[in-house]
């Protein structure tokens, strides 16, 4: 199955619907004028035309309804056709996709396909869409909007450094130790209600933007502390991001340190 087949079959009736509604609007204006002017003969004639046009409108609506009801949305989702077409379009548009049906990551979004209810979720938001091309365009538009959004790298680095200092104390680690980024996220968003507004995907995207600044030469916070990212042998503890070139990177830890002290 493919929604595009249904879409193409609906277009002629959709045009007829538009034309018929337009005719009804014109007839309404004519009938109103005839009523106001007392043109009974014209009113009688145009009311009959109005009735015929309304009947034509009902016929067009019935055709549309029959076409929509004939489309088995549940089978479309259960068969995997919807998901397969989404993935094919993502590949065509060069959108990075990870995961397996029914949950995917389209960085920084988490996409979930609800087969039972024939719904698609972008993070926690339900997207009322059964057309793969429309959904993929929505994802692409969201990604483009995020890329254009302003980002205060120094401000985020300062907040991350504060969380890092708390983590060092809480975890009883030595100063300037490598700390998992996931531990810092828990400090930045300690309660579930905070995580609804600032989820792990949002945190990962901020880390990706900070990493881009880091690769461009920003290696210090505004108070002069240096920082560096580190990997891990255990990718389950790492945060997967896409760098400025769209290349996959796994960042696990970060440490803040006084560069001058290290060079002594």
What would your notes on this structure say?
By secondary structure, this protein is an alpha+beta fold. It is 58% helix and 15% strand. The chain is built from ten helices and ten strands. The strands form three sheets. A five-stranded antiparallel beta sheet has the order 1-2-3-4-5, with no helix packed on it. Strands 6-10-7 form a three-stranded antiparallel beta sheet. Helix 1 (3-37) packs antiparallel against helix 2 (40-70). The longest helix is centred in the N-terminal third of the chain and has 35 residues, at 3-37.
Secondary-structure blueprint:
Blueprint: H1 3-37, H2 40-70, H3 73-78, H4 81-92, E1 98-100, E2 103-106, E3 109-114, E4 119-122, E5 125-127, H5 132-148, H6 153-170, E6 179-180, H7 181-188, H8 192-197, H9 200-215, E7 226-230, E8 239-242, E9 248-251, E10 253-257, H10 259-263
Helix pairs in contact: 1-2, 4-5, 6-7
Quickly describe the structure.
Helix content is 58%, strand content 15%. By secondary structure, it is an alpha+beta fold.
Per DSSP E runs of 2 or more residues, the count of β-strands stands at 10
The biggest sheet amounts to: 5 strands, antiparallel
Beginning-to-end CA distance, first to last residue: 68 Å
Strand order of the largest sheet: 1-2-3-4-5
Features:
single chain, alpha+beta, three-stranded antiparallel beta sheet, 10 strands, 15% strand, five-stranded antiparallel beta sheet, 264 residues
